[in-house]
Design a protein that fits this description.
153 residues, protein tyrosine phosphatase activity, Ptyr_pPase_sf, hydrolase, Protein-tyrosine phosphatase
């Protein structure tokens, strides 16, 4: 099983939305037996996904209503085959948590062949969350073939 870990700050907005979108892509491709997707936050407690994130994912036909944010811990990093962060600062924080992760940690944009961080919609309007979800979907779509190739479909 190829394990992908998506990381943001509080694990209430970006990384759970990215995980929901990527999990849907995995299911649609019939690869649920090959690819596992999780999310975590660098500074997370057990909080639900934000109301706006839940609403935007519901509009996309996905659910975040049972999401409980998870704190990123070194053990979770060590079991991941690929760690995709939302920003360069997240990438640095992840790299500082454990050694031997070279070649496994990327920003989502970097992995998708782009340069921009995923903007944080925390505290913003539903429209800002929709824009963030659109950015996530675009980056995940750009990275999809690379993910499938690494997973060894």
């Amino acid at each position: 099983m190829f394990k992908i870990l998506l990381v943001c700050t509080g694990n209430t907005c970006r990384s759970p939305m990215a995980a929901a979108l990527l999990t849907d892509m995995v299911l649609q491709a019939g690869l649920a037996d090959k690819i596992a997707v999780e999310s975590a936050g660098i500074a997370a407690g057990c909080q639900p996904a934000s109301n706006q994130a839940q609403a935007v994912m519901r509009q996309a036909g996905l659910q975040l209503d049972k999401h409980c944010s998870k704190q990123l811990v070194p053990a979770k990093l060590e079991t991941a085959d690929l760690v995709l962060t939302m920003t360069v600062s997240h990438k640095r924080a992840v790299a500082n948590m454990t050694r031997g992760m070279t070649g496994k940690i990327y920003t989502l944009a970097e992995f998708a062949g782009q340069a921009a961080d995923v903007s944080d919609p925390f505290g913003g309007s539903e429209a800002e969350y929709r824009m963030c979800a659109g950015q996530l979907k675009h980056l995940l779509t750009q990275a999809w073939e690379k993910i499938v190739s690494l997973a060894g479909k």
